[in-house]
User: Fold this.
Amino acid sequence: MKLRCAILDDYQGVALSRADWGPLDGRVEVRVLREHLTDRDALVGAVEDCEILVVMRERTPVDAALLARLPRLRLLITSGMRNASIDLAAARARGVTVCGTDSSSVPPTELTWALILGLARQVHTESRAMRDGGPWQSTVGTDLAGRTLGLVGLGRIGGRVARIGQAFGMDVTAWSPNLTDERAAGHGVRRAASLHELLGAADVVSLHLVLSDRTRGLLGEPELRAMRPGAYLVNTSRAGLVDGPALVRVLREGGIAGAGLDVYETEPLPADDPLRTLPNVLALPHLGYVTEDNYARYFGQAVEDIEAFLSGAPVRELA
Assistant:
């Protein structure tokens, strides 16, 4: 009898076309859910007959309460090797194997720079004016060469962002709770003595930390107001690193020049959220990982994960 597999939150309808699901023919029946189901009862009704779930990043939280309502579930696959919205302990307790896939640091790095450049040259404002018949050349851009780029986090993505900043001729500084002088020097950047020092000196602040109890709300109102009035904040990491209401207040008051955002506490972002309409916000719908190569990697390895599980030798298990 075939096992049933549901792929959740495939917004763009790409899951089946970005990988060869043929190896599972005759063994697994695959269905795709393109709409995000926020109603828990509706979600359970759609997947309660499934032994396998494939989830995209953290679009749908899989907590203990949901797992308890999915007694048939045996294998849970997430894109990437980290997913804070999955209760791994609850999954283990219920005998559910949780596996992941590789994820490239290139797409979020490139999108970070799309946001930095878009803000510096006011691309969103000028593009809208061109489309709507507005004024010709209504803004004056910010030069990046000679300016200071402050990186909060210097891991895989932060390190790549640093190298590109250096190529633009920027002075790059970095800070994180565990960053050492030696590690910063290895990337050719200066380590700021504190978060406040970095925020007060940077013209562009870009966030590249993992969200945890330690880092949640790291940038509250005092930290945001420590930034320069002409500075930009870019967040392609996790929304929870920043106090959302405080950010809206600071942006409305002109406490910073603007923000480039790709991550939000609630996704999709509600239609009435002020981040959609503030003129000094360049907002994208969480596109950091959304590229052809990354999707091919996610779904191709999801097929591999299922094959390995069926053979009794799961791969890429999450601890």
Q: What stands out?
A: The CA atoms of residues 11 and 102 lie 20 Å apart. The chain has a mean pLDDT of 96.
